[in-house]
Amino acid sequence: MSAGLLPAVPWALPFLALFRLGRREPRLLQYAPRRGRPLSLIIPARNEAATIGTLLASLGRSDYTPLEILVVDDRSTDATASVVARFAATDPRIRLIHGDPLPDGWYGKPWACLQGARAATGDLLVFTDADTRHEPALLACAAGALEVERADLVTVAPRQLTLTFWERIIMPQVWALLGARYHPRAVNRATRARDVIANGQFILVTRDAYERAGGHAAVRGEVAEDLALAQTFFGKRMKLFFAFAESLMETRMYQSLPQLIEGWSKNVYLGGRRSFPHEPVRRALVPVMLALAMLFWLLPLAALLAGLLPAAAAIAVGLSVLFWATICYGMGVPPIYGLGYPLGAAMLLYIVMRSTWRGAGRVEWRGRVYTARGARSG
What we know:
By secondary structure, the protein is an alpha/beta fold.
C-alpha cells in the first residue's frame, strides 16, 4: 500500500466487528417450548394508544398457558386505556390496571412495572413494552430457555423495525454500538457488572428471583432501568441469559425524528454512565467516548471536502459506506441507506451532546418532564 493511503487504514478496522455482530447465537428458537407455570405478562403503558393494540392482538395469539396479561396504564393522557378496555372486553386474560400517581424519587416505567408485579398472580413474570409484537411461541420458548439454562432472568434481542428515513439513518448507528458492546454471547459469559444488560422490551424472571433482587423498587431512580435491573441481578449472583429472538419478536421503538431525539436523549448519557457502575473515570468519560465514535465516521468526509489527503480520505469514505451498508443489511434496512452514514453520525452526535447537556437535570418522555428537583409535569 502506498504511504499516502495509510491514513485510511483505521477505517478498515471496524470490519473486524462484523464477525461479532454477525454471530446470531444463541437463538431463543432453539429451545423447546415449556408451558404450565402460571405466567403474568406486564405491560407498562403511558400514551401508547398508537401501538398497544398491535401488541395486544399479537398476545391474543400466544400459545402459552396459563397466561394473564396486565396492562398498567401509567396515567396516560391519550386513549391508551380505552384501547386496552376494548381488548379486555373480548379476552378474559387481559386486565387493565389504572396506575397510581408517581411517587417522589421514581421514574414512570419502573413504577408501572412494580404495580404490575404486585397485581400479578403468576410464578413467572414477563415485562414487555407496548411497541412490541410477539409471535405465538415467544413466551413458551423463553420459558424453555429459563428452564434449560437454569436462569433467573431471560432477555432477548428482537428484530428492530425501521420504516422511515430517519429511523434507517440513525438506528443502525445506535444498534451497531450496542451490539458490539453487549453481544448476547458476551453477556452470558460476563464476569463484571459492566458487561451485563437486559433489554426492557422483554424481560422474563421468576417471581422468587424478582423479589430477591428487590424488584423495580431497586431501580426506581434509573432511566435505564433494564440495564440497572440486570446489574442488580448480577450483583446478587443470579444468572442472566440473553438470546436472539428476531424470528419471534419485533419492535419499532420510534416512528419520527422528534421521537428518536427525545428517546435517545433520555437514554444515551444516563444509560452510558450506568454501564460503568464501578468505574468513575470511564463513567465520566462516556460523553467523550461517544462523541469520538461519531467524529471518527465524520472525519474522512470532512477531510475530503477540505481537500486534505484526498486519496486516503476517499478510500476511508468508501470503506465507511461499505461498513454501514453491511450494518444496514444485517438489520433488514436497505443497504442504500449506508450512504447516509454521515448524516446518521451527525444526528447521533447532536443527540449525545443534547443528552449530556441535560444530564439528570432534565429528562423528558411521554409528556412527563423529570428534573433534578424531582418536579414532573404530565
